[in-house]
Amino acid sequence: MTQAEPAGAAALIARCAEGDRAAFRQLYAAWSGRLHGIALRITRDPGLAADATHDAFVQLWQNAGKFDAARGDAGAWLVSLARYRALDLVRRRGREVLGHEASVEQADSAADPLRALLDSAEGGALHRCLQQLAPDRRQLVVMAFVEGLSHSQLAARLAMPIGTVKSWIRRSLLGLKECLAP
Amino acid sequence: MSGTDEGPEMLAAEYVLGVLDAAEAAEAERRMAADPAFAAEVAAWERRLMPLASLAAPLSPPDAVWARIEASIGAPAERAPANDNRRWFWPAATLASLAVAASLAAFILLRPVPPPVVAVLLPAAGGAPVLVAVAEPSGRVKVRATSGIPVASDRDLELWALRAGATRPEPLGVIPPAGRETQTGLPAGTMLLVSLEPKGGSPTGQPTGPVLYAGKLATYN
User: What stretches of A70-120 show up as alpha helix (H) in DSSP?
Assistant: First the structure.
């Protein structure tokens, strides 16, 4: 099952809304790897990641009619299904007790850990704006999003007071918003 | 209100970033359902931040995942395993939790004649039961709120039945504050859902808003 390129996702979603199983299968072939990868990074548990991927695709099938291509990017919608489901599963399980200290920033060793952002126009703008943040704040925001870590988990992971984590994140988010404003 | 001392926009941003704890995230989801301006704020932050998802390396899921998905969306003719709650995308905790049994038992004992098929509808975001549904042998389904449910004045809660094996729910009508009775034969195993809809109910015949509460009808022995 190759990870085909995501073009045409909006049209495939529209066909799913009409009950077209072939379109659903195509979406799965094209997107399951990305969604599963996102879920695995957040849950750090193959079973939970599989649950999140399963749930996201069932939700896709059942809610395809709700997706409005005029209002949002199809890929972002698909990604958000898996991401929110994964976040929900780890919250329910009580992610504060997960002791995994896995993969703390393997990204640090790469020359530009954010270069995957450059593959899309929106990602390119976000990449530029992230570069304007101080490196430690940038790392905090990226780690929070990609690993799905809560304020308190980030504080524990980085040995920082939770108040500092919260205020760094808030200021970074406001900076990103300003930088991304049209 | 937890986590919102910097205003609703920060709550929206932190929700999308994923840093909220369970209670704060549930609060954000409640606001998304009730407040279109807040929902729009969340959507704007999704547009800003969602490209970050491309930083997670793709990994194909095990083949069993596709098999499970196919089983979950199976046509009505396909037989689904009984009590397989994982078929549903609603949080597993909303379905048949043991904690519910206590409140359910209390509810049943107060009734002169125990009804055979009941469902307790829990918030999708987690929390205490808010609605109890009883399917009587006559086919009549009664739905009652266990406490007041705040709904914006331009919205209504609508009840849906998703029969075992079905992929699309059937509308059972808007739920007035005093509860609802509806004449329809619903077997055990049917999932009852409550979604937030425009005033007067969904214009499309399918849920258009978020599913706020869900529970499965089960025979109560």
Answer: 74-93
